[in-house]
Amino acid sequence: MRDTSETRSPSVAARETPIALAAGWERLLIALFVLVLVVPGAALLAGVDGGNAAQENRALAPRPVFALDRTTLRAWPGAASRYLEDHFAFRSTLVRWQAAIRFFGLRSSPNAAVWPGRDGWLFYADDGAIEDYTRQSPFSEGELKDWAKGLQDTQDWLAARGIRYLFVLAPDKHEIYSEAVPPAIARLHPVSRTDQLTAYLREHSTVNVLDLRPALHEAKSRGRLYHRTDTHWNDLGAFVAYQQMIAAMRLPSTGRARNLDEFTVRTEQTPGWDLAGMVGLASMIPEERIQLRPTAPARARTFWPMHPNAYHESPRIITQVDDPSLPRALVYRDSFGSALVPFLSEHFSRAVYLWEYDLDPTLVALEQPDVVVQEWVGRRLSTQLPFYPF
Q1: Residue 223 belongs to some domain of the structure
Q2: How far apart are CA 28 and CA 37, in angstroms?
Q3: DSSP per residue, 325-357
Q4: pTM score, two decimals?
């Protein structure tokens, strides 16, 4: 009997196999397309790996508020768009990947405010830093006269009230470690604004000015003085500055500045600090943090704020030592003053630190300090003039 079952020829089966494969790929592509549409939305709702304010070093857009009024309804689409742009799922991972490709692969900075230097050093390029390093705009004679008059009048006004004065110039990292600055960034003039101002004050005024650069240049052979991934000096750099400041105040009642052998030096591996965070790579560019810890218990106690920041970054800090024979200090400072707080505070019965540059005569009258200190980072000479309160 003849077999009536249908038999396909090999050529027919061969023709159908690609069709079946194509159908399988189509289903896979459809599934992937659905996943691409659904997963980010679901992850956004679940709050998975959205924007990271610390990583991007900026405030992210807040969740938009919805209300049935004309003003809110008009503003809502734009606010919602900004929120989604800042918080979409996997944003922080994508930002980190993009930054890593640019920084490690292309050797360029993902953030124009950060220079990648040599040997793993990062440098700040904003807030007058480039102008300060390149020396593109020297002081005019008139500007130097204005600075000298303002600082001299400040010192004279304080001296008439029996108060000593100290004007301190804290150098940026690019001044002390210029050998690590990218070689493509050239200096345009042989002298900086700090050079000009210190020389002018010493020749044309009696202002008690302290240029910390010589001491820091001399000390850097004995240890690293600045953070590699941060704008600021570390504890060793701040300690050198503190020793110079105590000597320059010329107040016998403060006692001598402490020596380095009265501290233990400790190193700690941490994620990268502010500049590494600004390029989105704090977790990939580590910092070896150098810390000084006194061998004897600290005498100074923080009176304000009640819950002080560990790095002394509060806008107003008041410390006290239970010893009325010690003098009182009023310190106007910027971010470089933060690391000075634990060192200087040991020498004053009361020390008030204000994160601002402008001297306030009313506060001076209230605090009755024995010394007033104004500390300026060098790059600020390119962006800000001294306040003239008299």
Answers
A1: yes
A2: 14
A3: TS-EEEEEE-GGGGGGHHHHGGG-SEEEEEESS
A4: 0.80
As a whole number of angstroms, the distance between CA 359 and CA 127 comes to 21
Do 285 and 322 lie in a common domain? yes
Inside any domain, residue 20: no
Where is 378: in which H helix or E strand? none
- The total domain count for the chain is 2
The reply to whether 149 and 53 lie within a common domain is no
- Same domain for 335 and 199, yes or no, is yes
Strand, coil or helix: what is 257? coil
Q: Is 340:370 a contact under the CB 8 Å cutoff?
A: no
44 and 163 co-located in one domain: no
Q: Which helix (H) or strand (E) holds 208?
A: none
User: Whole domain around residue 167: which residue ranges?
Assistant: 114-382
Q: Are residues 305 and 352 in the same domain?
A: yes
Residue 311: both structure tokens together? 């790095």
In a domain, 82, yes or no: yes
Read off the pLDDT of residues 235-247 as tens digits, 9 standing for 90 and up: 999 999 999 999 9
Tokens of 332: 């106007």
Residues 59 and 170 in one domain: no
Angle at 375 between CA 373 and CA 376, to 5 degrees: 150
Q: Where are the alpha helices (DSSP H) in 220-348?
A: 235-249, 274-278, 341-344
Task: Confirm whether 16 is domain-assigned.
Answer: no
Strand-pair partners of 298: none
Q: 175 and 288 share a domain?
A: yes
296 SS3 class: coil
* Whether residue 328 is found in the same domain as residue 267: yes
In contact, 249 and 340? CB cutoff 8 Å: no
CA dist 181 and 292 (Å) reads 27
Using CB atoms within 10 Å of the CB of residue 167, give its burial: 0 to 12 exposed, 13 to 18 middle, 19+ buried. buried
For residues 204 and 207, give the distance between their C-alpha atoms in angstroms, rounded to a whole number.
Answer: 9
> Comparing 53-57, 75-79, 147-151, 380-384, which segment has the lowest mean pLDDT?
53-57
**Exposure on the CB side of residue 113, measured as CA atoms within 13 A:** 16
> Could you tell me the sign of the dihedral formed by the alpha carbons of 178, 181, 184, 187, in that order?
negative
- Judge whether 182 and 118 are in contact, CB under 8 Å: yes
